[in-house]
TrEMBL record:
<keyword id="KW-0597">Phosphoprotein</keyword>
<feature type="domain" description="PAS">
    <location>
        <begin position="205"/>
        <end position="249"/>
    </location>
</feature>
<feature type="domain" description="Histidine kinase">
    <location>
        <begin position="348"/>
        <end position="569"/>
    </location>
</feature>
<dbReference type="InterPro" id="IPR036097">
    <property type="entry name" value="HisK_dim/P_sf"/>
</dbReference>
<dbReference type="InterPro" id="IPR004358">
    <property type="entry name" value="Sig_transdc_His_kin-like_C"/>
</dbReference>
<dbReference type="InterPro" id="IPR036890">
    <property type="entry name" value="HATPase_C_sf"/>
</dbReference>
<dbReference type="Pfam" id="PF02518">
    <property type="entry name" value="HATPase_c"/>
</dbReference>
<dbReference type="Pfam" id="PF13426">
    <property type="entry name" value="PAS_9"/>
</dbReference>
<keyword id="KW-0067">ATP-binding</keyword>
<feature type="modified residue" description="4-aspartylphosphate">
    <location>
        <position position="658"/>
    </location>
</feature>
<dbReference type="GO" id="GO:0005524">
    <property type="term" value="F:ATP binding"/>
</dbReference>
<dbReference type="GO" id="GO:0009927">
    <property type="term" value="F:histidine phosphotransfer kinase activity"/>
</dbReference>
<keyword id="KW-0418">Kinase</keyword>
<dbReference type="InterPro" id="IPR000700">
    <property type="entry name" value="PAS-assoc_C"/>
</dbReference>
<dbReference type="InterPro" id="IPR000014">
    <property type="entry name" value="PAS"/>
</dbReference>
<feature type="domain" description="Response regulatory">
    <location>
        <begin position="604"/>
        <end position="723"/>
    </location>
</feature>
<dbReference type="InterPro" id="IPR003594">
    <property type="entry name" value="HATPase_dom"/>
</dbReference>
Amino acid sequence: MSNVDLLSDEIFGCDTAKSESQSCLELIQTALEPFDIRRLSVWDTEGRCRASWPSMDLESAEDSTAGLGTMDLSCDGHQWSTSLDGRTQLAVQLGNHGLATGLLIAEFGQTSAGEFEAEQLQQQLPWLRAAGTAVMTVSEQTEAAVESDARTKQMQQQHRAFQEEHLRIVEMNLNESDARVREHQRYATQLKMEVDARTRDLMVSEAETRSILDTAPDGIVTFDRDGVIQSCNRVADSMFGYSQDQVVGMHVSVLLGESVQWILAEGGFGSTESSHVKCVDHEFTAKRLNGAEFPMHFAVSSVKIESGRLFTVIMRDVTQQKETEQLIRSQTERLEAINQAKSEFLANMSHEIRTPMTAILGFAEVLRESNAHPDQIEAINTILRNGTYLLEIINDILDLSKIESGKIEVELMSVDPIQIVRDVTSLMSVRAVPKRLALDIECRGPIPETINTDPTRLRQILVNLVGNAIKFTETGGVKIAMELAGQDTPSPKLMFEVIDTGIGITPDQMDRLFKPFAQADSSVTRRFGGTGLGLAISHRLSEMLGGQIMVESEPGQGSTFRVSVATGDLNNVRLLADATTANVDAEKRPATYCSLTQQGLGCRVLLAEDGPDNQRLISFLLKKAGMEVTVVDNGELALTAALEAVAASEPFDVILMDMQMPVMDGYTAATKLREADYRRPIIALTAHAMKTDRQKCLDAGCDEYTTKPIKREELFGLIRELAGSTSAE
């Protein structure tokens, strides 16, 4: 390491200061090379010798300088004040960015003394003063020596040129330094302006954010990974009953309770690896300042930041929403209970009405088949006609109630539409013949041999339309026309037109034509009777079958009701040219009462029926058909009688089970019989005609079911089928 490096290291510690001081020392050393330098020494601001060259021990150095005079090393601006004795010496102030850090003292030998005055020597090295880093003093002896030494004059001229070059370099460096200072100042000013602008932007953004937060309809709380709340808006304050000063700094568990653990763990925020925003929402019960609990729905977002993870919770008090939901649930339950009560009432009414109607119509048919007087036959027919009409009204009311409550269902199956139309005309001819009305069938183009629909509901629609047409037509006739529409489309439909020559309907009357309990004219009820339910029911049923009903009418000229139903897929379905080509399979027709009577089925039947009139009627019909009948009043007695007959090896061939009886109903009795491994057929007798009612009977263990009023042919057909299979076993 050079002497200059050594001196620089001793005085300046940091790299920057060291670099600057080293350059200064190198310049000083170069400028003093022509002189006889005995020693260079460096002193710190406390008057201690830090280094010397050639080296000497510090104690002797201090002793040697003691004779130099007292050295005042205090800083006076940027200059050092020194007092030296008569020995030839040079004192150079050292500094770092304008701060005095030490003193360099050069001691000259006698050969260096010359004719130069101190002022001239200072002029020889003005760059040291210009740099603000040196002050020189020379003793009077040095001045005399310099003046008398010609060699020194020559060297002075050489060094004057050297000095001028160094002065130029120093001035250039100073200019560059000034330029850098100005550049730094410009940059600092620009930076300050940018910082001020960004600060203003941040203040505006913060004000906007605070405004948004405070006007938000939901509470918003932000907290860190430790759960300490960093901010909240006014809604959150009022939601929990705290002031903002109370909330900020509070642990978030005070507000959110156990949900905090869910947020940090189950919410998926336990890991801090992810830096993207993640949101979850949930619902918890929160607690207010007064201890009141309330339901709260909140959404949580979490984002990784430099200091960890930040959570933002957006909360909504859903107390009112929950109360509304509870009110809706209560109202829904209430309506469901009302509908259930209504359904049960209708079911009971159906049973209570159909059960006596079974006896009335059944005994009327029995009387009509006896050898009664013609006047008596006429009276019996009146009973049957009005009883049937009353039953139709009951069926309409029940059907409408079921449709409105959504309890009616359609059962799609492959059926022959032409046969359905024939059945309807055959049924309704008994109404047309007395009025001398023609009842015709017309096929317009090819008709599919089968379509996929509900035959019961289609028949019900056509019976209603044809019945109305006959009712409101005094002369002329009624025609049922069929036509296939949209054969080449994905959704073909079969059109049925019921055309009459009746009284017709005005445009104003059509508006309320398909409304329940409404007729085209109130006077119609007095003149023709009816409830006004038929068209409303037909309209609803046609929609359930994938179609609709439309009407065209001219008052006094007649009406045309056009109903369409979906046919289903017609691929591989034969199209018939007209109605005369359709054949009815006679084997599929139910057995008639007379055929059963003639066959004389000698089977044993257990009849479980609580109504005395129906007991007498059904047992009368069964016995007349050659059957052996045992009658019981309830399901419990039927269960006992059936099991005892099996135990006695004389089981009944079939059980007719009324499903609504006291003590034990038919559903329970059938279930218990199957649980006891009873394998004989059970036929359910019920006043309910819904598909679900049939399924309920089958689920209870019944093999088949039939509805009241009892149709003899249908009942005897079931008995023959089931009892025959039992005999075959």
